[in-house]
């Protein structure tokens, strides 16, 4: 059960970190190959990094939904009563989930059409359906994460939710306490 909980918390992070490390390493390798006189520049590195960046974008969708860091303007919400704020959050979660589900549904056709075309990438000669399948995976996982957020918000409906200002103040107090604890430990 601990593994499932850990994967629930960090599944997207694993891939995002791997992809960003790969981008950094391949970019550095390309710079080395361009600058060292007897080495031939890599022909595939730009394409590889481009695909990795695209994949991180699509995998960041479910990550931001799960972490609750989707872009929202909460100033107006913070002025509303608790019940209305929670109801609006659930409605936003449902709309987000429906949009991600719709995008996942339509991306199935895109991936199958590209698969049928047999198209490959220019430099690496990868099948393009693999490149586009991350679009489908990102939207599908974002749909699941959206459903998960709806469930979390519904099951915790009666709990008090902090406003943005209250959250910021609590985080600042926590950071100050941690800094004070570290300062006291170094003396």
Structure commentary:
The chain has 187 residues and is mainly alpha-helical. It is 79% helix and 0% strand. It is built from six helices and no strands. It is flat and about 65 Å long. The relative contact order is 0.11.
Give the SSE layout.
Layout: H1 2-35, H2 45-67, H3 75-78, H4 82-117, H5 128-155, H6 164-186
TL;DR of this structure?
With 187 residues, the protein is an all-alpha fold. Helices cover 79% and strands 0% of the residues.
Count of all domains: 1
Q: Per the principal axes of the C-alpha atoms, what is the gross shape?
A: flat
Strand content: under 5%
- Low-confidence region ranges: none
What is the count of β-strands? 0
| Helix percentage range | over 70%
Order of helices and strands: HHHHHH
Short descriptors:
187 residues, mainly alpha, 79% helix, 0% strand
